[in-house]
Amino acid sequence: MKNILEDSRLQRPVSLAPDDFLWIPNWLDRDIADKFLPLIISETQDKSVTQKSFGTKGPYWNKSKRMVRFGDPDVTYSYNGKQKPVYAWTSSLTEIRTLVEKAIDDTFNCVVVNFYEDENADLYPHSDTTYIPQLGPEPIIVAISFGETRDFLIRSGGTKQQQKGPDDVIALGHGDLFIMKGKSQSDFRHGLKKAEVPKNRRVSLTFRKHLS
Questions:
Q1: What predicted TM-score, i.e. pTM, was given to this entire model?
Q2: Radius of gyration (Cα) for the chain, nearest Å?
Q3: CB-CB contact of 17 with 154 (8 Å)
Q4: CB–CB of 84/51 below 8 Å?
Q5: Tens-digit pLDDT profile for residues 151-163
Q6: Separation between Cα atoms, residue 161 and residue 51, nearest integer Å
Q7: 90 secondary structure, DSSP code
Q8: For position 204, what pLDDT does the model report?
Q9: Which of 6-10, 171-175, 204-208 has the weakest average pLDDT?
Q10: What number of other Cβ atoms are within 10 A of residue 86's Cβ?
Q11: pLDDT tens-place string over residues 79-106
Q12: Residues pairing with 151 in the sheet
């Protein structure tokens, strides 16, 4: 297992905000990522629910995008003021959490599992702390990608009115690790673009620490 704290050569800079975002391609060796992907799907998919996307006519339920949350017994999760269910850790999620915590010397009590089933699945540019106060002002959020490579975008400005310059687009692939920290949630937004070509399933895990 590669330790990102010991070898800066593993890190690929994110030009828009190198102090707030950290990308480690192929952090999980392919055989390890291949092992985890079907386990994650079998343990979590049946609890996932459809999520909204935003189109030219406004928000709509996107059947290609699903989400589910897992965490410690005392973790509560609300999004935009609405309470959401939090399920107990599964075996594979617990194992991956241990690997992540060792790699960055931090702890996490919650993970969100996102399913992007095909090229129509996307995630609108947003800041997590805008909707999830339990994260605190400057959380560390660690994402691991499995399956299909998809374009992840970083956009300057915490709101549309504050946006400056073009997006930074990162092709996150199978086994990649991506960290958002510092001012990543206050000064930037992040999301996932729809693809212009057919895509198979992508699954991402985003580990967080809820403060209350």
A1: 0.90
A2: 16
A3: yes
A4: no
A5: 999 998 755 655 6
A6: 25
A7: P
A8: 98
A9: 6-10
A10: 21
A11: 777 888 999 999 999 999 999 999 988 9
A12: 171
